[in-house]
């Protein structure tokens, strides 16, 4: 019996398209064309019942794949951060194929950007109180996740701490990137 692989993903991407058959995962490729990579069908989707499309809190779903993703030089498993890890002053790497600027085009090659954690109170003030306990914020001058990166991982020291969720524009110094807070959502992810 084949063990199935699970992937934590953002809820807003699957909220209106619930059919698992409409999703596929491309892995082991650094290009959008998928050269050298493999496409795997999604078998099922567990959407967080607490997901709120109005404020984007609890923005996580768990995708179960029809087969395992085999680790390679390009594809490595990323474990979730422990729920008791201290927050503050962390540096993270965010990867994706999203736009390189707000409203800009998407690159063909996978991109990576290093961002720094933004104080929760400061981020909450930037978004007029819109940051919930299931969100964390990261930004760096001129660097951010952008449209098309949604659902991608935010990684600190080899552990996934966030899932690209939302923000105003891209790399706007007044508005940090907002990520689903994996430590706060860990119980749902583990149970699904």
TrEMBL record:
PROSITE patterns: TRYPSIN_DOM (PS50240), TRYPSIN_SER (PS00135). The keyword Hydrolase applies. GO terms for biological process: proteolysis. The keyword Hydrolase applies. Keywords: Disulfide bond, Hydrolase, Protease, Serine protease. One of its GO terms (molecular function) is serine-type endopeptidase activity. It comes from the Eukaryota. Residues 1-192 form the Peptidase S1 domain. InterPro entries: Peptidase_S1, Peptidase_S1_PA, Peptidase_S1_PA_chymotrypsin, Peptidase_S1A, Trypsin_dom, TRYPSIN_SER. CDD domains: Tryp_SPc. One of its GO terms (cellular component) is extracellular region. It is found in: Secreted, Extracellular space. Its main location: secreted. Belongs to the peptidase S1 family. This is Peptidase S1 domain-containing protein.
């Amino acid at each position: 019996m084949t063990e199935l692989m699970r992937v934590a993903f953002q809820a807003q991407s699957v909220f209106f398209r619930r059919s698992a058959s409409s999703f596929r995962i491309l892995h082991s490729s650094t290009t959008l064309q998928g050269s050298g990579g493999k496409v795997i069908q999604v078998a099922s989707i567990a959407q967080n019942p607490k997901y709120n499309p109005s404020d984007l809190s609890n923005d996580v779903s768990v995708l179960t794949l029809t087969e395992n993703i085999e680790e390679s030089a390009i594809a490595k498993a990323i474990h979730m951060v422990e729920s008791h890890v201290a927050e503050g002053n962390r540096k993270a790497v965010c990867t994706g194929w999203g736009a390189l600027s707000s409203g800009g085009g998407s690159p063909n090659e996978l991109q990576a950007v290093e961002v720094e954690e933004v104080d929760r109170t400061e981020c909450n003030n930037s978004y007029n109180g819109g940051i919930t306990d299931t969100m964390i914020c990261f930004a760096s001058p001129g660097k951010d996740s952008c449209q098309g990166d949604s659902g991608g991982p935010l990684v600190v020291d080899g552990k996934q701490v966030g899932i690209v969720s939302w923000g105003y524009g891209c790399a706007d110094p007044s508005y940090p990137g907002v990520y689903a807070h994996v430590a706060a959502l860990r119980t749902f992810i583990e149970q699904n």
